[in-house]
Amino acid sequence: MAVLLETMDDDELAARLAHDLDGAFEVLVLTHQDRLYSVALRLLGDARDAEEVAQDAFVRAYRAMATWDAARIREVRLRAWLASIVVNLARNRRRNAADRRPPAALEQLLDAGLQPAEGLRQAPETAALRAATARDWTERLGRCPAAQRAAVVLRHVDGLSYEEIAEALGRPVGTVKAQVHRGLANLRAQLEAERAAERPELTA
Amino acid sequence: MSRTQRPTSRTHPPAPPAGDTPGAIEAALAGLVSPAPATLAPAVLVEVGLADAWATLPSPLGEILVAWNGRGVSAISLPVDPAAFEEHFVADHRRPLHRAAGVPTALRRLIDRRLTGDRRADVPLDLRGATDFEQAVWRKTLEIPHGEIRPYGWVAAEIGRPAAVRAVGTALGHNPIPLVVPCHRVVRSDGLLGNYSMGGPENKRRILQVEGLDPDALEADARAGIRYVGSDTTHIVCLPTCHHARRITAAHRVSFRGLRDASAAGYRPCRACRPAGSPAA
Questions:
Q1: Do A63 and B37 touch (CB under 8 A)?
Q2: Best of A20, A28, A109, A181 to disrupt the B interface by mutation (most B CBs within 10 Å)?
Q3: CB B157 within 8 A of CB B276
């Protein structure tokens, strides 16, 4: 296993993948794993689901590119394309939420002894506080309608441009902008409602 | 909704609650990026076959080491020093190898079924890097039933390369997946058991014994010139370990030194063990 944590600009990465998919694929994973995992985590709210979806997204990306010619790989807009795979997988996962059996891929991982993520290395109280805050935001996102949630996560967690989000979600830019806007308004309303509930005397 | 809900409009978003600066929600969301678990990248690379995992597994020969990736099993070895196993693997396959706690359940079950004689257990194999000839030899060897043996020349004839007997031996000597690809079931054309890549000839005898064969008796028969066995009721001639041959009672058992003798005596070759190799290959 290459120990060097190499990351790379997307244009150069796409060119390298087009030239040598097997040779460059690990760099693609290392470059995009944090963002794909984060998007999946905030769409799904569960670390294990998120790891599985992010893993599945990379595997699907590899298998798709393995069937493409070099020109098509060179032209792919990696950020938006990878995001679209994660959003679709996360949507299917939520849709099948009733089915809580771990799919084969996860079962294999667990069998293979690849343990869940290591604990945070920060001081425990800080880590706990941060985890609690992150969990609160993930829950608020979970209460938004799916279209808003995906748009907000891609815009503000992942930092995609509206054009990239439009491509990833297959919706017009104007629609995506409105969904981000409404999603933020939804989060703001939830925040206010929570604060009001904590201090009922002020709103009575 | 509570009475604290403010009217919302697209052009005039509500002011943030007291204590929040504009952009606070966006900033909080931007802070939700989490590092991917350290297990994610290795799992992806193993699944697509750019890296492999390995673990130990019980087998009829005792504990074995099994390496695999998302394409299939890539190597099997007797327990050696794990560092040596990894070093050889990386040198042979040019892929990183990670130690795992266990073989994935589905794969383990398939391997178990295979090793106990179930030929319907289709263990996926990753044979990338092998020549077409090697792959043909190994895939043909997979067809030899549990508890039966075939000569090198049989494999050569079956894959349509009847003259390549020596090359078949070499290919089996390079079999990366012994036991699952049962190269221990391929023996010298003179009936002696011959060599074995995984731990030498003694291991070959041991595995064949575990599969219910008597290696000493097989070699004694071969030395006595018994290469083929027929039934005088069916007039069908088989290789001696063919399951049809083993059902022939002593009273009806006829042995032959060569297929020509059998043919001259009016015997036709068995369609299951195909003692002359498959003419269609």
A1: no
A2: A109
A3: yes
Q: Tell whether B90 lies on the interface with A, counting CB pairs under 8 A.
A: no
Residue of A nearest to B47 (CA): A59
Look at chain A and count its residues. Answer: 204
Residue written as token pair 């996962």: A93
Residue B232's CB is within 10 A of a number of other CB atoms, namely 13
Same domain as A161, residue A182:
yes
* 3-state SS class at A91: helix
Residues of B classed as catalytic: 183
Q: Indicate the range of A154-163, B16-25, B226-235 predicted with least confidence.
A: B16-25
Task: Specify the DSSP element, H or E, that contains B209.
Answer: helix B201-210
* CB-CB contact of A98 with B91 (8 Å): no
Q: What domain range is A105 assigned to?
A: 8-117
Q: Is the pLDDT at B150 greater than 50, yes or no?
A: yes
Kindly indicate whether the ipTM for this predicted assembly is greater than 0.90, answering yes or no: no
Which residue among A57, A87, A117 closes a domain? A117
DSSP secondary structure of B99-164: E-SS--HHHHHHHHHHHTT-TT----B--TTS-HHHHHHHHHHTTSPTT--EEHHHHHHHTT-TT-
Architecture per CATH, B43-115: 2-Layer Sandwich (3.30)
| Cβ-proximal residues to A163 (8 Å cutoff; 6+ apart), any chain | A173
What is the rounded CA–CA span in Å between residue A39 and residue A83? Answer: 8
Same domain, A113 and A12: yes
CA B20 vs. chain centroid, Å, equals 63
